[in-house]
Write a structure and sequence with these properties.
365 residues; 8-stranded mixed beta sheet; 4-stranded mixed beta sheet; 9 helices
């Protein structure tokens, strides 16, 4: 299968779509966008102030965008951290990094407390180097992370790396415990159900066409609220006056058929770490709950400035480029079938300096 929906939805099933907005309405807070950003915001608002009337407006269904198509990493990475340190001081950036570390555990905690079975396994994140140039970058990266207070990060040589995951030609790696594998659709569907049970009103199939002060405008009516929160990431460009706020960028993923026990023995990966590398054309991968490899990254040709994605298809050359990465990392899997490929849009700051990012694989990536 290529496109249509992500493997995660093919695996867990599409959700029953909630009713759209049926006319003008009012709330204390209206959240535009039913992905992770919008749903986590709704969750913590209701936990902090249960009396608030919170409404979520989603153009398709919760998790339709990057939240339902990504690589399934919970990750402590911070984009633009050095810039943040220059603006606010090194100690402030260290506190920000600690908050990001804690965020991984917080997601795991909430999922357990709320009964969300999202296939979470906290095996950390292993980032490997396979060339001398990558090894130099890896060592610099590792030292830089330590300078921001991540004292529990570990640096491995080739032998120690192979003891975790047998990546062909790996000459070293850096591992942080602050990461986990997750089934992104199970998490986003579970989170939507939890916030709805807390009293949040969710309207799906309700595109917001314009955000004005205290107004979220849709074809079906306007929701008025003292606070309107835009949580639309790569789909921000669809809003009136917001075309250049975020750069919509398309990225792609593939997932293999389930591997046999013998194949897993050849690969290792018993710790189920999230896997990345130090190449400029990045990749990210996970060992899924049902024993597959899901892998994404920069394929070629690479759709850039692609606005939004309606069909989820990815180009054959991109699928082949991702498969080549898979086989280069794990030559013993050369005969393994790619069972599903898909793509989607993530939002990138036009200056490439966001404040924080919770998931290196936010958009299929």
């Amino acid at each position: 299968m290529n496109g249509g929906i992500s493997f995660w939805y093919a695996d867990d099933g599409l959700p029953a779509v909630r009713e759209p907005l049926s006319g003008d309405a009012a709330a204390d807070v209206v959240i535009v966008g039913g992905g992770y950003t919008g749903l986590w915001t709704a969750y913590y608002l209701k936990k902090a102030a249960p009396f608030l009337q919170v409404t979520v407006l989603e153009q398709q269904f919760c998790g339709y965008g990057a939240s339902g198509r990504n690589g399934g990493w919970l990750y402590n990475g911070v984009a633009g951290r050095d810039r943040y340190a220059r603006l606010h001081g090194h100690e402030a950036a260290v506190r920000l990094q600690k908050a990001m570390n804690d965020t991984v555990d917080e997601v795991v905690r909430v999922a357990g407390e709320e009964g969300i079975d999202a296939g979470i396994h906290k095996g950390g994140v292993l980032e490997v180097a396979t060339t001398p140039a990558q090894l130099a970058r890896l060592k610099d990266f590792h030292a830089h992370e330590l300078s921001y207070g991540e004292k529990d990060r570990e640096l491995y040589d080739a032998r120690e790396t192979a003891e975790r995951i047998r990546v062909a030609g790996a000459v070293g790696s850096s591992w942080t415990p602050h990461g986990a594998r997750v089934h992104p659709v199970k998490l986003v569907k579970g989170l939507a159900a939890v916030v709805e049970a807390l009293g949040v009103v969710i309207h799906e199939r309700t595109p917001v066409t314009e955000i004005r002060p205290k107004h979220a405008v849709t074809p079906y009516g306007t929701v008025r609220a003292p606070y309107v929160l835009r949580c639309t990431e790569g789909f921000t460009a669809n809003l009136k006056g917001q075309r250049r706020t975020w750069l919509p960028m398309n990225s792609s993923m593939v997932v293999t058929e389930p591997l046999s026990e013998e194949q897993w023995e050849s690969v290792g990966w018993a710790g189920r770490e999230a896997l990345g590398d130090m190449a400029h054309a990045y990749m990210y991968a996970q060992r899924t709950e049902d024993g597959r490899i899901a892998l994404g990254g920069r394929g070629v040709p690479y759709r850039f400035g692609s606005r939004t994605d309606s069909d989820g298809r990815t180009q054959d050359a991109t699928v082949e480029a991702l498969r080549e990465i898979l086989v280069r990392f794990f030559p013993s899997l050369a005969g393994v079938r790619v069972e599903h490929a898909w793509s989607g849009v993530l939002g990138v700051p036009r200056d490439w300096c966001a404040t924080v990012t919770l998931d290196r694989a936010t958009g299929l990536g």
